[in-house]
Write a structure and sequence with these properties.
The protein is of the alpha+beta class and 92 residues long. 33% of the residues lie in helices and 12% in strands. It has a three-stranded antiparallel sheet with strand order 1-3-2. It is elongated, with a radius of gyration of 23 Å.
Length: 92
């Protein structure tokens, strides 16, 4: 098998895992839970489009409160504290 060209629009599973900063096993687990980036099989190998990996990363970045100011909980006013329920005293 030849090496993947730098201009190739797809990556095999192990290279895709490295591209998104995960281990191959972690990427398999994400795919099994249907939470990973979209992939397809060709010749018995799981392949990923680089554009799909970039879109998946951008989607997860947008869901993270550290990179999306709209989701930052520190920008909202704190909720008022709830009063503790006191146990009812038994009648004597």
């Amino acid at each position: 098998m030849g090496a993947i060209e730098a201009s190739s629009p797809v990556l095999p599973h192990d290279k895709a895992a490295a591209y998104i900063g995960r281990t191959p096993k972690a990427l398999y687990c994400l795919n099994d839970r249907r939470m990973g980036p979209p992939s397809f099989r060709t010749g018995g190998r799981r392949m990923y489009r680089i554009t799909a990996l970039d879109a998946w990363l951008a989607e997860h970045e947008a869901q993270d409160s550290r990179s999306n100011p709209a989701l930052d909980p520190t920008t909202r006013a704190p909720e008022p504290r709830r009063a503790k329920r006191r146990p009812q005293q038994l009648a004597a």
